[in-house]
Amino acid sequence: MLTTGTLPDALETDCSKCSDKQKSSSTKVIHFLIDNKKEDWQKLEAKYDPTGTYRIKYEAQEKEGDVSVAPAPE
After folding, report:
1. Contacts of 16 (CB under 8 A, 6+ apart)
2. Of the candidates 34, 44, 22, 41, which has an alpha carbon nearest to the alpha carbon of residue 68?
3. Which DSSP letter does residue 5 get?
4. From first to last of its 74 residues, what are the pLDDT tens digits of the chain?
5. Of 39, 40, 41, nearest to 59 (Cα)?
6. DSSP readout, 9-70?
7. Does this model's pTM top 0.70?
8. Residue 7 CA to chain centroid, in angstroms?
9. Are 21 and 62 in contact, with CB atoms under 8 Å apart?
10. Domains defined along the chain, listed by start
């Protein structure tokens, strides 16, 4: 589960202190927010990643095809 304690680490250090399961879950949640819940992501980014470091890294992964996120259900 992604917690407020996990989120800063996930953004700042690629979830270096997370278990494999936490890392996978964090990545999925963050990518879902970026792709499908932009307003929610912007609030979290402003608090935990104000320089946009994670988003820049995510966008680079997306261009390389390393990221696959399902769209939000309608």
Report:
1. 9
2. 34
3. T
4. 455 566 777 777 777 778 888 877 877 888 888 888 889 888 888 888 888 888 788 778 777 766 555 555 55
5. 41
6. HHHHHSSTTS-HHHHHHHHHHHHHHHHH-HHHHHHHHHHH-TT-HHHHHHHHHHHHT----P
7. no
8. 8
9. no
10. 6-64 (1.10.2080.10)
CB atoms < 10 A from the CB of 67, how many? 15
Cα 39–Cα 5–Cα 43 angle in degrees, nearest 5: 15
Question: How many Cα atoms occupy the beta-carbon half-sphere of 37 within 13 Å?
Answer: 14
Tokens 């970026």 found at: 34
